[in-house]
Design a protein that fits this description.
The protein has 82 residues and is α+β, with helices and mostly antiparallel strands. It has one domain (8-78): Glutaredoxin. Helices cover 35% and strands 21% of the residues. A four-stranded mixed sheet has the order 2-1-3-4, with helices on both faces. Helix 1 (17-28) links the parallel strand 1 (8-12) and strand 2 (34-37). The radius of gyration is 12 Å and the shape is globular. The two termini are 12 Å apart. The relative contact order is 0.25.
């Protein structure tokens, strides 16, 4: 069940349990997304911090930043019911 697609970017780091859960969520709902490893991309890490996020995952949907794997907010931003 693919949903109407806003631009989605997932900021991750190696060994992050919640990042794995976010990736599985996107796969389950066929959400196209770009994944950026903040341990390899200093500018991406700084962007996340500038938006108030101190850890990963960070999810950007359209121009909305979500700190952590907050499934309720993600579903709301993407229009996923249930």
């Amino acid at each position: 069940m693919a949903v109407s697609q806003k631009r989605v970017v997932l900021f991750t780091a190696p060994g992050c349990h919640w990042c794995t859960k976010a990736k599985a969520f996107f796969k389950r709902y066929q959400i196209n997304h770009r994944t950026i490893d903040i341990s390899r991309d200093n500018k991406a890490r700084q962007d996340c911090e500038r938006h108030g996020c101190k850890g990963v995952p960070v999810i950007m949907i359209g121009n909305r930043w979500i700190c952590g794997f907050d499934e309720t907010k993600i579903r709301s931003e993407l229009g996923i019911k249930g």
